[in-house]
Amino acid sequence: MSSKVMSSEVSSQLFLEPERYELKAAPVYRFDLDRRDFFKFLGAGLLVVSALKHAGAVQESGGARRRGEDSLPKEIDAWLHIGEDGTVTVYTGKVEVGQNIRTSLSQAVAEELHVPIDKIELVMGDTQLTPFDMGTFGSRTTPTMNLQLRRVAASARDLLIGLAATQWQTDPAHLVGSDAKVTDPQTNRSVEYAALLKGQQLTQTLPAEDPLIPAANWRVAGQSAHKVAGRDFVTGRHRYPSDQTLPDMLHGKLLRPPAFGATLLSLDSQKAEQMGAVVVRDGNFVGVAAPSVALASSAVAALHAEWKSDPQPSSKDLFDYLKKDATEGKDPSGDGDSYETGSVDKALASADHHLQQTYTVSYIAHVPLEPRAALAKWDGDKVTVWTGTQRPFGVRGQLAEAFRIPEEKVRVLMPDTGSGYGGKHTGETAIEAARLARAAKRPVKVVWTREEEFTWAYFRPAGVIDVKSGVAADGAITAWEFHNYNSGSAGIRTYYEIPNQRIMFHEVNSPLRQGSYRALAATANHFARESHMDELAHTLKLDPLEFRLKNLKNERLRAVFQAAAKRFGWGASKSTPGQGFGMGGGYEKLGNIATFAEVNVDGKSGEVKVVRVVSAFECGAIVNPDNLRSQIEGSNIQGLGGALFEAIEFENGKILNGRLSRYRVPRFSDVPALDTVLLDRKDLPSAGAGECPMIGMAPAIANAIFDATARRLRSLPLVPNGLKLS
Amino acid sequence: MAAIHLSVNRQSYTVDADPQTSLLTVLRDHLDLTGSKYGCGEGQCGACTVLVDGKAQRSCITRLGTIGAKQITTIEGIAAADRLHPVQQAFLDEEAMQCAYCTSGMIMAAVSLLAVNRHPTHDEIVDFMEGNICRCGTYPRIVSAIQKAASVLAESPAAKGASR
What are the beta bridge partners of residue A609? Predict the structure, then answer.
């Protein structure tokens, strides 16, 4: 029964195209909490809550409310508590998957509240303790949650200053917060936050407008800060989801179908049951639970199952299939996937030069080093699940749906996890562990093998992109037609100034389960656009940088192209045969990137080596420069894998290369010399940086390979056969 | 199943397990030493790296039955009381991690490298570490951390004594 619900739940994930799916997912949870419950749980002190803007009725505030007023806003996105002992605890539904937001959010609070960073605890991604959050993706934590927590912390600080001013009967404007104290610089007296909050139960709802410290005056934020609790990670003490245990816990294993979409015809589980394993068959769901992983695996091996599956497309025919299956260009979401201006057909007909090319990208896998894992435990009709997911509240919803229980009966906790890159939005292991735990009446842990992670998770969408362009003799682009089949609409619009444009996204019934990925379709769309720009420049015999700048007005984007070109030494002549230089760049998730690459192609062996990469990046005011550099370097290195050699091969519903010995990811020796230029715009709001820097890599490398060899590669990965030009 | 003795982090244990069980499973599920991670189960990613008699080995493809009297050291066993091992400290100082799931394997491989090569060059580090994957892409920082740890170790009294 429940497995039917489950499989329809899982399959509904299959066809959700990532970016529209993300943008449309609206918070449905209605928060219902009494302030007395907060203090019962947190202890006395000060509570500041941040209401969601669209919640409407909550911008009252001003002063703190005392005992007796018990209503809190219905929709809250973060809260901060300062206890009578001065401990600061911040609650947010965001999660930590290696992007280091635990650290950057702590910095934001430390800055506004004037408390040392190590005195702040962040409770993240626990559906029982933290406010609803849609999920941690789309580079939104820095532009949204960082700002909210700054506001919350600034309110708390002002309130504490107000309390001190009342106590001292002085003007609060004279007083300042520093090192967890309120100080009067005129008299030098000071009082600790903790002392001000003794015996208090104060609440404040975030005021509509709050004075925030301008980025130019930041002291803590804007500086590099070490990873919070870094010591737990270098000593092995931190417990990731797959490290969680409970007394009496069993280990769960699933019987996997031989192909995607297969139906179970019959199952003989007698042997497995004789081995002492709990066997669950529920529709197509077949799993076992046993005291050890070894026993669970043996029990799965002892199951005899018959499956039926239908023929399915293979990677060899993928791009033909995508074009054939595609819908007419349409804009089903209304989110601006498709766009038309001027008259493309006329402009193409009258252009001095034309170019028409097709670009493709393969399915690739996220390969989070920690595979999906979950530990589930039932108490009566309530289930608690520890799991690695970028959407703990989404997984709560999936569990509630799968088991047909209200969301209040489900608690999902997210221990800081071994990465995601957009690959952990779903709750497969949570549902599997919970289903087995319900049958076994004991806690059950499910940790996917690497092969399962490669096969039963989801992929970055493959795609075909057709580009037609028309250019005037002086290098001004006059016409631009751009069709993306399946890979997605993120970054589909062009930032070059072109009077006549037709841009369309075409949906396809994807042969593989596909979903979010770091930078989503922006990688594919930038690869096609920036490769095509390079091809046009060469057609016109113009310098690729000059050609871009001629057609680009956006000042922020011009600035990164110019900064990267300068650092790279663009325009220098080649010093060795086989050397090649190329660039790519663009705009995504409020960030601006320009990437310049130097490659070396061995004339005899055809081996391609990316020697040097210079990136210039600008995402507004910088919060943590060292972490920003780390995110850019990481994006470049991950982007290098998708650019050069990563591709999922599949045939008739089976993945052919779903292991690390068959699917190559970047390693130490692949890393080029990386040089990163950060443009700090303190006058602009901070944006996230986990995704955007990735998008320049593939076109920069492809353009550099063309510069080195005069061979134009239009498919990602560029050199799938190891690192050689085939 | 058999009662098998083994020494991990200078402590003796007896585990009741099949000799074919992987050392990684024994560490994680029998001894609750979860610092060593599962990443691939085929020795390709290095997240499970431990020291066997001081040498880096992939615990996911090492069978319990082959250990015998050899000394196992895991990430939990390299810090002295409250003092981190210089490699651990260098990883913190150089921010050589993002999600940090690969970190314990990286640190154990680096400890093994520095035991046989006190002053590895950049290329020697890259060669030795090639079997360890960091999907977050912190490789350049890991190389810096290992270089830093090498210079700290060279400055330590023990190293100076040994070189005399």
Answer: A600
B18-51: per-residue pLDDT in tens? 999 999 999 999 999 999 999 999 999 999 999 9
CA distance A490 to A522: 5
CA distance A655 to A652: 9
Give me the residues paired with residue A443 across strands: none
* Closest Cα in chain A, distance from residue B97 (Å): 8
Tell me whether residue A271 is exposed, middle or buried, using C-beta atoms within 10 angstroms of its C-beta: 0 to 12, 13 to 18, 19 or more: middle
B161, with CB counted inside 10 A (0-12, 13-18, 19+), is exposed
Planar angle of CA B34, B40, B46, nearest 5 degrees: 70
Contacts of A245 in chain B (CB under 8 A): 32
Within 662-701 of A, beta carbons closer than 8 Å to B belong to 665-669, 671, 674
**Minimal Cα–Cα distance from B8 to chain A, Å?**
15
Cite the beta strand spans of A44-144 per DSSP E.
45-51, 76-83, 88-92, 120-124
How many pairs of residues across A and B have Cβ atoms under 8 Å apart?
Answer: 163
Closest CA to A324 of A464, A482, A493: A464
| Of A604, A618, A613, A687, the residue nearest A643 (C-alpha) | A613
* CB-side neighbour CA atoms (13 Å) of A595: 39
Cis amide bond preceding A717, omega within 30:
yes
Portion 107-136 of B in contact with A at CB < 8 A: 107, 125-127, 129-130, 132-136
Say how far apart CA A503 and CA A338 lie, in whole Å.
5
pLDDT digits (tens, 9 = 90+) for A648-666: 999 999 999 999 999 999 9
